[in-house]
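Hi R.,

Here's the chain you asked about this morning:
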Amino acid sequence: MITMALSKGRIFEETLPLLAAAGIEVTDDPEKTRKLILATNQPGIQVVLVRATDVPTYVQHGGADLGVAGKDVLLEHGGEGLYQPLDLKIARCRMSVATREDFDYVGAVKQGSRIRVATKYTAIARQHFADKGVHVDLIKLYGSMELAPLTGLADAIVDLVSTGKTLLANRLREVEPFMDISSRLVVNQAALKLKRDRLRPLIDAIGSAVAKD
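And here is the predicted structure, written out as tokens:
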């Protein structure tokens, strides 16, 4: 059995056409079933639904043979033990620094001020500010990032931005986009050796579908 780890939502929806190009169709609708293991039209291939942040862990430790995860998730996870053969070019967005509209971010950076930054992407944020030589205090949050500057918890946030509408609605502004994000195919290295005859054609078919877009 080949097991593929996916997360619900945008990544799942945008992965389906790539799987279809490889002749794989998920026969269960994740929005209409409580099942976490979904069947496909291929008897030897199944899909498991996990949290986006858990996809690399499932693949790395053999709970799944392959999966789809955002570059942001992979950078935070570390990516050890994972083969990343394809940038699927789906679920695109960017990692950005955002602040209140009245906060002088550029001035604070120039003056060498210590900036309080709220984010769930602590590894990415730490590396970004270290590369710039900016001193920051990182505050780990798991949701509602936009509240942090509005309540005075932080001066800035580091978060994913797609359209920017959420920032605008909360009177925040994007001051420094610094990384393009898309989703990658990740493969368990041991599975690639043990199941090579089945995994390699699947990877190649998905790669061909990406190349046609």
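One quick note: The CA atoms of residues 61 and 180 lie 27 Å apart.

Cheers,
M.
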